[in-house]
Backbone:
């Protein structure tokens, strides 16, 4: 198929880098991945994945909390840090992926 159309877009550099890191491992150039995405849109007649808001637990959903509840959660986190009750993000996400 002839590829003569050009797309110029601005994206978050970190998001682009993370996507490129995955695509390199898959052996797929970014342009091919975008072409695949656009083809899926035309084949499906919409975005090829669900576009929804993340489901935040009510215990951490700031939109559902009062000012005092937010302050209490922040204080709890601060107290955990001061007491050394911390875990790095990579370990936390690895455990999350293992459990799901």
Residues:
């Amino acid at each position: 198929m002839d590829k003569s159309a050009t797309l110029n877009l601005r994206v978050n550099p970190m998001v682009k880098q993370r996507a490129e890191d995955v695509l390199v491992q898959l052996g797929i150039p970014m342009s091919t991945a975008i072409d695949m995405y656009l083809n899926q849109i035309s084949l499906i007649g919409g975005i090829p994945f669900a576009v929804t808001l993340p489901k935040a637990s009510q215990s951490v959903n700031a939109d559902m909390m009062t000012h005092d509840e937010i302050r209490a959660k922040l204080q709890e986190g601060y107290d955990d840090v001061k007491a050394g009750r911390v875990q790095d993000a990579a370990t936390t996400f690895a455990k999350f992926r293992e459990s799901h």
In short: The helical segments are 13-26, 30-44, 67-82, 89-99. The chain has a mean pLDDT of 90. DSSP finds four helices and no strands in the chain.
